Amino acid sequence: MALTRDNWPSRTAVRTSLAAQFALPPLPPPIQDWFAWCRRMGTESLVLEEPNWRDGESGVLTGWGAVDVPGLLAEMEGYRFILNQKASTPEHLVWSDAVDTGKWQSHWVVLQNADGDPLIGNIGRPEVPVLWDWHGSGRWSPQPLFPSLQMLMERIEVYVPPSLPGDDLPTVFYTVHLTDLGEEPLRVLAALKAHPHYNHLAGASLLKLKHQLPLQLLDDSPSVARKDSLVCRFEALGARVKVVERVYRPD
């Protein structure tokens, strides 16, 4: 049975498949500290505000954060490990490894990402320097961000919205839709591939999104940083987005 949107592999299936087929080089101690840190963070919304990270754009993190080796492998789905949709079935996932083509390095692991722009750890060095890169450019040429993984953990913060329901101040919730792909639709579709609503799509299924506008990017969220990040990202690609605000006022 071929893969479809209805039977697309779950994150657990991806973890299991990758762990069965691939192995990582020996992991330096800071990676174990990273696993423990991610466990402590749990489902918190996280943000990295650094002038050299995404050229100063809002850095709301949209990745999962690995807590073990299978999770670390799964974080590289779409970066190092590319699913062959045509050759895969729900019972057997077929992957290509970007290391084989020289597009990815075997000592790079994805630690986190913001709308697909990855934070990359270099496990070939004991301190695990942290790099970053834009996705969608067709090649990976990450640039240095922090000299150690420990520094990244110190700089990431828990994102706290300006106000929440139950506070004295009203809360604004944002819904964001992509309304037009602009003059370079393929660039915009490549960016959509990193969005959690659409990252299961590839090839023809991704191209069909051109005929399904408007596309929801954010649903009724109080995160100003997340809203601004999406708007800046897609408008920079020449697309048009629409933001709808809903104001919640406590009784």
Mean of pLDDT: 87
User: SS-based structural class?
Assistant: alpha+beta
Distance separating the two termini: 53 Å
Helical content band = 25-40%
Biggest sheet statistics = 4 strands, antiparallel
Which strands sit side by side, in order, in the main sheet? Answer: 4-5-6-7
List low-confidence stretches: none
Order of helices and strands: HHEHEEEEEEHEEHHEHE
**What would you report as the Rg, rounded to the nearest angstrom?**
19 Å
Query: What portion of residues belong to β-strands?
Result: 15-25%
- The count of helical stretches stands at 7
Overall 3D shape: globular
Description:
With 251 residues, this protein is α+β, with helices and mostly antiparallel strands. Helices cover 25% and strands 22% of the residues. The chain is built from seven helices and eleven strands. The strands form four sheets. Strands 4-5-6-7 form a four-stranded antiparallel sheet. The mean pLDDT is 87.
